[in-house]
Structure to design on (582 residues):
């Protein structure tokens, strides 16, 4: 299949051949030649209002569908506006391809108008990146970009194409196979490691399945359920893995980490074997690393060998796709069980179940009868249900959305976990809705975050992308304010946003062609959510005017040991006595 055409036509043909159905982007001088053939393409291009929105939308699309998200921008400022979402996708292993225009090949290095070395800038935050100056290379580079982004540990790949290559005449030749020396992700786990892991699992008395975002990316939820039910081992799901295991499941202890449940934190801390599945021992999970789970041996399964032993020594390293690892472990443990060999976890399971029932997630209602943010989010989750996709911003609302929405299915919880990017929710929800048009998509956003990227409501309204946005309006940069309350003597330096006064979110929604609603009383919450659920032709924005002093609990203060967990201010759980009975 070879054909004469321009580099720009070849680029669009290549994107079609790679399977792209949607591109989020903004044109400009250097990428302009590509926008002309885009008009005749089957690909839907969605014109966003800021390139950051394009990048997060591509991430939301990828996170909801599992397919590669695509964003496009021009050189210089267009490309640099993609830096945050690229870094975000890198941290959260999101399959994404970013295509940027570059100045003409002869101008590169001359400080030409709108020239930025985006390849150099994104070198440490992409899985791989290319600069294409030869138009004949375009198809191969696009094919490689999609392959690299979506295989092994997924991640962002940047393809920077010089304007001269887009304008030149070339031959379109789609590669039938790819040669990527040095890139051969290991997906099949080593049998010896599986045997070793099986032995440790059977020997242990206090094991925990520590489930990370890799389990979602590997589409391994069913296999995880099989292993958990076969063994009876308790499960914790990290912020990136919420939904990988049903919240309603009796073995589920919830989220570990800084704002995790007491049961999940305690289970890791006191375990004798942590089975890590696509997780990375992030500092928000381990707290002070030296005192993390001091008696636990570690089985660490990950597709990326660089993760294994990075933060914590692995007794049994397993390089492989989490789904394949789980399938193998289920097979070996089933054989062992048939021979009468099963683990003895009875005392342990009873111990963690006791902690789970003694220290459930909870919150105090505000004394003044105002609206509590946790209540709003809890009701939203209950009314919208487990088939809805929830995208969040970063801050207190994100933690409450992780805690108080009950997730039952993978890919229904989308957030910026690793980078913690404020402004992620609205564009990510937009991308998720484009990828899953028949699914209800709620953005649960903070008043601060919302003000970083809400211009994408225009994109949503104009392009018939009816997302729903719940602004948890505590009129402050609440998470920062919480730290000021706890660690800076209530000196609230620069965290007051006054956002119950300015802007008027209902009018702002209206100005963007969306329906705007407001709610400030607990008794109106259900009716307001139901009203929003009933509007499906245009985007809806609800301004939930909540009280500002709510705090996220439980909490392990940054840098301290998980043993110091507080489930409310100055309240430490007491489980040593129960532990004595183990
Ligand atoms: C781009 C960016 N800038 C700054 C921060 C630091 N930060 C983390 S949470 C937060 C407050 C977020 O405020 P809001 O969106 O209102 O959420 P809330 O915590 O009030 O629920 C800030 C400033 C960040 N995470 N991202
Ligand atoms: Mg806020």
């Amino acid at each position: 299949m070879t054909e004469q055409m321009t580099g720009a036509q070849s680029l669009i043909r290549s994107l079609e051949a790679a399977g792209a159905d949607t591109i989020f982007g903004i044109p400009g001088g250097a990428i302009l030649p590509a926008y002309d053939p885009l008009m005749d393409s089957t690909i839907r291009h969605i014109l966003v209002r800021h390139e950051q929105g394009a990048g997060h939308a591509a991430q939301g699309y990828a996170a909801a569908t599992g397919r590669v998200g695509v964003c496009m921008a021009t050189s210089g400022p267009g490309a640099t506006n993609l830096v945050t979402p690229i870094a975000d996708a890198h941290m959260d292993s999101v399959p994404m391809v970013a295509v940027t225009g570059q100045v003409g090949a002869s101008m590169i290095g001359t400080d030409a108008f709108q020239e930025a070395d985006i390849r150099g800038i994104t070198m440490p935050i992409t899985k791989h990146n290319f600069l294409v100056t030869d138009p004949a290379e375009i198809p191969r580079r696009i094919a490689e970009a999609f392959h690299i982004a979506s295989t092994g540990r997924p991640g962002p790949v940047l393809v920077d194409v010089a304007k001269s290559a887009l304008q030149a005449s070339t031959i379109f030749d789609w590669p039938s196979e790819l040669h990527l020396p040095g890139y051969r992700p290991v997906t099949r786990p080593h049998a010896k490691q599986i045997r070793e892991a099986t032995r440790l699992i059977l020997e242990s008395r206090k094991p925990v399945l520590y489930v990370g975002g890799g389990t979602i990316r590997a589409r391994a939820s069913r296999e995880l359920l099989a292993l958990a039910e076969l063994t009876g081992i308790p499960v914790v799901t990290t912020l990136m893995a919420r939904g990988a295991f049903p919240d309603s499941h009796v073995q589920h202890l919830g989220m570990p980490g800084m704002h995790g449940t007491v049961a999940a934190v305690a289970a890791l801390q006191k375990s004798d074997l942590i089975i890590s599945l696509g997780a990375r021992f992030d500092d928000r999970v381990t707290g002070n690393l030296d005192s993390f789970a001091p008696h636990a041996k570690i089985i660490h399964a990950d597709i990326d060998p660089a993760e294994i032993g990075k933060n914590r020594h692995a007794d049994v390293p397993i390089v492989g796709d989490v789904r394949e690892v789980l399938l193998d472990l289920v097979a070996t443990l089933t054989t062992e069980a048939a021979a009468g060999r099963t683990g003895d976890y009875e005392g342990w399971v009873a111990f963690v179940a006791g902690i789970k029932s003694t220290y459930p997630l909870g919150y105090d209602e505000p004394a003044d009868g105002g609206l509590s943010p946790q209540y709003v989010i809890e009701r939203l989750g209950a009314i919208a249900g487990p088939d809805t996709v929830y995208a969040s911003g970063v801050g207190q609302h994100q933690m409450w959305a992780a805690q108080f929405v009950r997730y039952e299915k993978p890919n229904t919880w989308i957030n910026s976990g690793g980078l913690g990017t404020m402004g992620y929710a609205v564009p990510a929800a937009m991308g998720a809705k484009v990828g899953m048009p028949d699914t209800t998509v709620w953005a649960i956003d903070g008043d601060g975050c919302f003000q970083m990227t809400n211009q994408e409501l225009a994109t949503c309204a104009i392009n018939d992308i009816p997302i729903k946005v719940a602004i948890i309006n505590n009129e402050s940069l609440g998470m920062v304010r919480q730290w000021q309350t706890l660690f800076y003597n209530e000196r609230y330096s620069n965290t007051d946003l006054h956002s119950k006064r300015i802007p008027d979110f209902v009018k702002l929604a209206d100005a963007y062609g969306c329906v705007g609603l407001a709610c400030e009383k607990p008794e109106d919450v259900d009716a307001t959510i139901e009203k929003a659920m009933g509007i499906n032709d245009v985007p809806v924005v609800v301004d939930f005017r909540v009280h500002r002093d709510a705090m996220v609990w439980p909490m392990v203060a940054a840098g301290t040991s998980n043993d110091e967990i507080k489930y409310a201010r100055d309240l430490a759980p007491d489980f040593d006595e129960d532990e004595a009975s183990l």
Q: What stands out?
A: The chain has a mean pLDDT of 97. The pocket of magnesium ion (ligand 2) is lined by residues 395, 446-448, 474, 476-478 (CB under 6 Å).
